[in-house]
Amino acid sequence: MDKPLLSVRNLRTTFRTDRGETRAVDGVSFSLRRGEILGLVGESGSGKSMTAMSIMRLIPQPPGMIEADELRFDEIDLLRLTEREMSDIRSARISMIFQDPMRSLNPVLSVGRQLTETVIRHRNLDRQQAQKRAIELLEMVGIPAARSRLHSYPHEFSGGMRQRVMIAIAVSCSPSLLIADEATTALDVTVQAQIVELVRDLVKDIEASVIWISHDLGLVANLCDRVNVMYAGRIVESGPVRDVFYRPSHGYTLGLMSCTPRVDLVGERLQPIEGLPPDLRQPIRLCPFLPRCAHKVERCTTEMPTLVEARPAHLASCFADLSSAWRPGR
């Protein structure tokens, strides 16, 4: 069997603050094969973006601290690299589409400058070659009059157009691993479909792997091969998309599915997840979802569940039997 492109084992990211130590990522483990698209889902604050930022080593240290038993990309130990060595890998081999393009793009540099500086540095192109590549990238993500828009600044683009610029920058060097953090949130459904096709083409053409972070369960089901469900900085369920979405085996996954609109259940009320996520400054000794879970059993009040195989290649950290609690869609 081929070795995974990315191997993450027991990843922990903590922040030391005046109000105590916060464990934002708490023992996350997964692997990613070449050419695979992995979804990360969960509500805001569940640790999805922090996991991605930790892999990219973009957490400021201090106040943050990244630790792991293993954080290996293409046989490279990312935690042992110097900042200069890690900087050489970012954008060239591992790239990220950030959630907020207005904060990620430099407001005083033109879009063309921000596109060309990436390919000049990592692909050793001259200025003319870099500009040609920048025009190709803008056309690829659906920006009209690409040549003239090279001279525009981020504030001259709409929110959706800025997001497309971020995607163009992220794929400019054809990375082996693309991390997309809510990459299509600001886009309408037509452009969203174009971006999804762009990601699929990237995976097919260069065998890139993708970590797709999203709240849109429908999009994840349509795009991804596998999915990790995160809660309170932990992976609580993991497996092939069809298994997880058709046969959820954790109370939190079931809760996410129950509050998502379905075309085959028109007229039925959605079931919200009551309560709030736990305070990550406090030690968690039982299932972190226990206070909000509608399917808890007696064992949940005395033991901490661990990820175990619910069915082949499908893991869940839950004691409850949810086999009859979910109605699969048509």
Outline of the structure:
31% of the residues lie in helices and 22% in strands.
Write the layout of secondary structure elements.
Elements: E1 6-17, E2 20-32, E3 37-41, H1 48-55, E4 64-67, E5 70-73, E6 76-77, H2 83-89, E7 94-97, H3 101-104, H4 111-123, H5 127-140, H6 146-149, H7 159-170, E8 177-181, H8 189-206, E9 209-213, H9 217-223, E10 226-231, E11 234-240, H10 241-246, H11 251-258, E12 308-311, E13 314-316
Parallel strand pairs: 3-9, 3-10, 7-8, 8-9
Antiparallel strand pairs: 1-2, 1-4, 1-5, 5-6, 10-11, 11-13, 12-13
Helix pairs in contact: 4-5, 5-7
Structural features, described:
With 330 residues, the chain is of the alpha/beta class. It is 31% helix and 22% strand. It has helices at 48-55, 83-89, 101-104, 111-123, 127-140, 146-149, 159-170, 189-206, 217-223, 241-246, 251-258; strands spanning 6-17, 20-32, 37-41, 64-67, 70-73, 76-77, 94-97, 177-181, 209-213, 226-231, 234-240, 308-311, 314-316. The strands form two sheets. Strands 7-8-9-3-10-11-13-12 form an eight-stranded mixed β-sheet, with helices on both faces. Helix 5 crosses helix 7 (159-170). The longest helix is centred in the middle third of the chain and has 18 residues, at 189-206. The protein is globular, with a radius of gyration of 21 Å. The two termini are 35 Å apart. 38% of the residues are buried. The model has no long low-confidence stretch (mean pLDDT 87).
